[in-house]
Amino acid sequence: MAQGSRLVDLVQTRIDGFLDDRSTILRSIAPELEPLDDFSRRFLSGGKRFRALFCYWGWESVGGSGFDPFGDDAERDTFPIVSAASALEVFHAAALVHDDIIDNSDTRRGAPAAHRLFERMHADAGWLRSSDEFGRASAILLGDLLLGWSDELLDEGLDTLSDRAAARAARAEFMRMRTEVTAGQYLDILAEQSWRTKPDDEQRQIAERVITYKAAKYSVESPLALGGLIAGGTPAQIRSLRDFGLPLGMAYQLRDDLLGVYGDPAVTGKPSGDDLREGKRTMLVAIARERLAAGPRNLLDELLGDPELTDEQIRMLQRTIGDSGAVDEVETIIAAEVGRALAALADAPLSSPARSELAALATTVSRRSS
C-alpha cells in the first residue's frame, strides 16, 4: 500500500497548510479565536484516514496511472484528489465534533471531546454562566467551521480540474453525501428515542437504514465514488465502486457497533460499553432483542441508554447480548457483506493494482480493533 501511505502523508500536509492559511484569518479577527485553530488541529492530526484512502483508490482504480509525490508534476497532477481526500477528513472531523455533542460523549480517540475541551477552558478561566453551555455552543460552532472548511478544500481542488464535467459530478457527490449522513444522524437519534413506538419486527430494518445512511455510504461508498468521479470514471466504473463500497461500508459499521460494546478502551479510545450507556439502537441490539426471552429483553430495554450504568451492569449487558448469539450473527453478516463487496470487485472494470489494494482495505476495515 505504498501509494496509499504516501497519500496519507500528502493529506496531512494539505490539511496542515490549509489550517495555516485559515489560522491567519482567525488571528486577524481576534486573538481569542486561537482555540478554534488549536482544537481543529488536534482533531485533524493522525487517525486511520480510511475515507481519504478510499477516495484515492477510487481515483486510482479509474486512472490506473499511480503518481510520484516527489515528481516534477506531482503537485499539479494530484492536487484535486489530495484536496478531495483532505476535504473528506475535515468533514469527518466536523461530524465527530457534532456527534460527540449529540451523544454527550466525554472522549474521542482517548482524549477529551471538543465540547469537553471548551468546557474545561471555561471552567479554568472562571468565566460567567455555565461551563456546560459554553462547551456545547463552542463545539457546535467548531463543527460548523470545519464543515465550511471541508467545502473550501474540495472546491480548491476541483477548481484546478481540467475536466469540468468531472468536477461538477464530484461536487454533486459530495453534496449528496453530506445530505445522506445528516439524514442518517437524525434517523439514529430518532431510533434511540422512538423505538418503543415501533413493532419489534421492524427494529432490525430501522437499524439497517441508520447504518446505511449514517455510516456505510459516507465512510466507504461516497469516498470511492468521489475519487472515481474526479478521475472521470465511466458510469460502469462508478457503479462498480458503489457495488463494492456499500456492502463494505455496512461491514465497517457493524464492526464499529461490536467495538462500541466490546472494544478495548486502550485501543478504541472510548470507554468499554459506551454504546450501551448512550443507548445506541444498533443492529447488534436489534438482533439480541429478537433472540432474547421476554425477561432478559425487558432488562436490556430498561438499562440501555442509562448514562449512569456501572461497570458491573455493562459487563452483565455484554454477557446478555453475547449469550443471545447476536455477536455471532453480526460476525456472520460482516463476513457476508465483505464477501458481497469482494464479489463485486472481482470482475469490475477497474485497474488491477487498485482492485488488489481495495481487497486488502476490505480486510483491514472489517477486522479492525479500533
UniProtKB/TrEMBL annotation:
One MF annotation (Gene Ontology) recorded for this entry: prenyltransferase activity
Keywords: Magnesium, Metal-binding, Transferase
SUPFAM superfamilies to which the protein is assigned, alphabetical: Terpenoid synthases (SSF48576)
GO annotation, biological process: isoprenoid biosynthetic process
Cofactor entry: Mg(2+)
Record InterPro entries: Isoprenoid_synthase_dom_sf (IPR008949), Polyprenyl_synt (IPR000092), Polyprenyl_synt_CS (IPR033749)
Family, similarity comment: Belongs to the FPP/GGPP synthase family.
Name of the protein in its database record: Geranylgeranyl pyrophosphate synthase
